[in-house]
Task: structure prediction
Amino acid sequence: MEKQPLFELKNLSFSYPRSSRPAVERASFLLYPGEIFGLVGESGSGKSTLAKLLCGRYAAPAGQLFYGGKDTADFSSAERKAWRQSTQLVSQSASASLSPRMSVQKILEEPFRIAGTYRQKDARAVRILELIHAVGLCGEHLARLPGELSGGQRQRVAIARSLAMEPAYLVADEPVSSLDASLQAQVLALLLAQRKKSGMGVLFIAHDLGLVQQFCGRVGVMWQGKLVELARTEELFDSPQHPYTKRLLAARLSPDPAVHLSLSEEIAAAPSGAWEETSPGHFLMA
Ligand SMILES: Nc1ncnc2c1ncn2[C@@H]1O[C@H](COP(=O)(O)OP(=O)(O)OP(=O)(O)O)[C@@H](O)[C@H]1O
Ligand SMILES: [Mg+2]
Result:
């Protein structure tokens, strides 16, 4: 039997008011439990907009988003609430959403209070310490207010809070780009541990292709609001097919502007029509 996806989107589109072009145009893909799906693409290509759509922050006017096999557009308010609770969005600026007057301890207790988990005080204290250690902080930080932490420390508290919710899936929008390499690795290890523990799925948005290559099973490439290519990570890095993907990968290996320029012409001429499977699991907008 095929595994039930955590979410599936079909031809999802979204436009901001007063903009001539959709920020996300007919995006289709799905995420399985325990899967880490990377989303890459140039600045302004629609990654963060897609992230917000997937967490129910915006309602899509066109296309469908299925959660638990049901179209989220048909959700009752109770179902919508349950869905919103089982998805978490961690953005690069997640730390801005920490309430300034709550101690780190209180911030990390709140998810358990909302979800009604870890009601027993001792068990809750153990879990909170586990989380705070996992993001490289210590017990001493629990008494502090967000304003008494560094930016990277605040970001780590925000990540710990999202994981405390034990989401079915986490949408991580450049969650570690403000952290140094060793902390990045530590936070990513935490995501892997949570995935192992609960089967959490992760949509991982990153500019760092090295991280994506290491960390993700499949990758989707966005360009101008469209998902133009999707494949298993190895396949995508070994044989990119869309000219934009080629440019993205070429820029990493050789910053030669001439290569860049010729690929730009190819990109401009790239068709953006039907979605084609060029080899098993490798999809291309052709
Ligand atoms: N609140 C908003 N109102 C109007 N337009 C917006 C808004 N947020 C984003 N956009 C536009 O939507 C498009 C997609 O933006 P989005 O933030 O999704 O891109 P992104 O791929 O996340 O880029 P980056 O890599 O820079 O974070 C851009 O053209 C952007 O200008
Ligand atoms: Mg973004």
